[in-house]
Amino acid sequence: MSFFKRKKDSEPQFYATVADGLKKIYKGKLLPLEETYDFHEFVSPQLNEPDFDAKPMVLLVGQYSTGKTTFIRYLLERDYPGIRIGPEPTTDSFTAVMYGEHEQVIPGNALAVDKSKQFRPLSKFGGSFLNRFQCSILKSTVLKCVTMIDTPGILSGEKQRVDRGYDFVGVLRWFAERVDRIILLFDANKLDISDEFRRSIEAIHGYEDKVRIVLNKADQVDHQELMRVYGALMWSI
Asked: 102-105, long-range: CB within 8 Å, 24+ apart, which pairs?
């Protein structure tokens, strides 16, 4: 009759947090399967401990001066370390705005070797990118629940000829794969989609379920003009 007895499970049935349970299941069940079928080479990279512990991330994408940085400042109700706002392209770096007890700015080279952060895989984009990547730490109630990713303003016109020195679209694709929400910001007064912006939109193809579109400065146009702008925006996209 011993054949019919259920084998006792040596693993614990309860975990302190959901994240702890997911880590255990992933490492014991899913990871070996992913490695067997080269899942990390063809679909998505391996998940690490910080990926489970990280807060949900929101990626803001848009052309320069569409209000990405201002959007974050509005939610936080204050400035964050390293903030730069102006009518011309001012945010020239990827900035992760995260919660912390002490305000500081952590450079990208330090983030690439920090085991407690989920950004270590970004080192593959090279030193030129890491010099344009930073993390702003500040104490904010909003950031206890979410991490905001501010991106460089996407260039248009003659400014597109500027070489960024790293794979900008590739970095966007890396973030798009991992974030929980992607916010595309448009300015109601300038709806032209540049070549770089078009490539950026193509980079997040496949993650449409994460995308939300924000038409900024819509209160500066009348109702009739707003309908025209809305139609032009949908046509451009």
From this structure: 102/137, 102/139, 103/137, 103/138, 103/139, 104/136, 104/137, 105/81, 105/134, 105/135, 105/136, 105/137
Reduced to 3 states, what is the DSSP secondary structure of residue 235? helix
The full DSSP string for 154-208 is: BP-GGGGGS--SS-HHHHHHHHHHH-SEEEEEEETTB----HHHHHHHHHTTT-G
Helices 195-203 and 168-178 pack at an angle, to 10 degrees, of 30
Tokens of 190: 């300038």
* Digit-coded pLDDT (tens) for 16-44: 888 888 888 898 889 999 999 888 887 77
Nearest to 91 by CA among 143, 186, 155, 163: 155
Q: How far is CA 26 from CA 13, 76, 108, in A?
A: 15, 34, 28
Pairing of strands 181-187, 147-150: unpaired
Q: What is the DSSP string of 84-149?
A: ---SS----SEEEEEE-SS-EEEEHHHHTT-TTSTTGGGGGG-HHHHTTEEEEEE--SGGGT-EEE
Stretch among 91-100, 154-163, 194-203 having the lowest mean pLDDT: 154-163
